[in-house]
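Supplementary notes for students who missed Thursday's class. We covered one full example, reproduced here. Read the sequence, then the structure, then the short commentary at the end.
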Amino acid sequence: MQRIAIVYHSAHGHTEHIASKVAEGARSFADDAAVDLLKADDVTAKPDALLAYDGIILGSPTYLGGVSGPFKSFMDATGRIWRTQGLRAKLAAGFTVSSLPAGDKQSTLTSMMVFAMQHGMLWVGNPFLPEQLQGVPNEEAVNRLGSWSGLMAQAGHASAADAFAPGDIKTARLFGQNFAQTLNRVSA
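Structure (token representation):
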């Protein structure tokens, strides 16, 4: 059985909402996979919990062009694991949410990717062509924000359940499904 951790920080519920959709997608591919949603604050206190997972998906809002403070604290708490390379060869991916279309989300994903690479992890990007190219309306299109290094979502100023375009929700599910499929292929 494959074990996937989705480690995230969410101050207002938006990133948590996307994390839950990523988890739905991962579970839809692998019924027998264990997919756990883990708050970054909880993992900061016990980073060795990550050693039990085959794949780790990272999620943070973009604050001022980078990961949130609590998410950075989680990253810093893995220093001892880094020294022993305990996460080497595990799969990793990342997603981020901001309220603006760009919002400097790319720098947040780059930070996550560098973190994973320093741990010797294998990065899984976002392989979906933007569906606008096939005539799908922008709000409904998969990968409507055009991100390849990870999942980007744009939250409007509404409750988490109502804040996202349908395309972002669809992309989150596909992103989780792709991660589980990739983990399955790499593990075979």
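Commentary. The first helix runs from residue 14 to 29. The beta strands are 3-8, 34-39, 55-61, 91-98, 122-123, 151-154. If anything here is unclear, bring it to office hours.
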